[in-house]
Every structure is written in structure tokens, then in C-alpha cells.
Write a structure and sequence with these properties.
The protein contains six helices and no strands. It has about 100 residues and is mostly helical. Helix 1 runs antiparallel to helix 2 and helix 3 packs antiparallel against helix 4. The longest helix is centred in the C-terminal third of the chain and has 25 residues.
Length: about 100
């Protein structure tokens, strides 16, 4: 499974080498676009936040490009975890619409 690759890339983002961080974020973006399964998004969120706060513009830009596919995965996983409940979707809308 690619969780080991994700963890390795997260650790690479924690290094002091900015070029290494840019490469790791770019590889993370490729993993996100390949729709890798993310079981716990918190370490990735922390890593991406720290990369966005870095003063290096190349790192910030790479991180910004990685965010959309990452967010798509997180949102898709959260909707799979919590199934849709039809009873909550329309009943309240009709009550308030009268």
C-alpha cells in the first residue's frame, strides 16, 4: 500500500532542504491525483500547512497546486464514511418552506 510512500514524503517535508520539500510536495500531489487512500488526513494537513507558511515561493506554489486534489480526496472520503440520510435531506426543507 502507498501509505508508506505518503509517510516517507511527509518526513521529507519535515527536512530542512527546501528543494527536497518541493519534490516531496510534488510527489504528494501525484499521489493525490492517483486517488491514493488517505486513512488519516491530519498529518498531511499539518505538513501542507507548514509548507504554505514557508517563506520560499516555490514551496508555497507547489503546495497550493497540491491542495485541490488533496481536498477532493478528503471530501470524498468523508462522504463515504458518513452515508447520506434521505430523511434529513428533504423533510426539513418542506417544513420551512410553508
Amino acid at each position: 500500500m502507498s501509505n508508506d510512500r505518503i509517510e516517507k514524503l511527509i518526513n521529507q517535508c519535515k527536512s530542512n532542504d527546501v528543494d527536497g520539500k518541493v519534490g516531496a510536495v510534488t510527489k504528494l500531489q501525484a499521489e493525490f491525483e492517483a486517488e491514493v487512500e488517505i486513512t488519516d488526513p491530519e498529518p498531511l494537513i499539518t505538513t501542507l500547512k507548514s509548507c504554505l507558511r514557508h517563506a520560499n515561493q516555490h514551496l508555497s506554489t507547489a503546495t497550493l497546486f497540491a491542495l485541490p486534489p488533496f481536498l477532493n480526496l478528503v471530501v470524498a472520503n468523508s462522504t463515504r464514511v458518513r452515508p447520506f440520510s434521505p430523511s434529513l435531506s428533504t423533510s426539513s426543507a418542506f417544513r420551512f418552506g410553508r
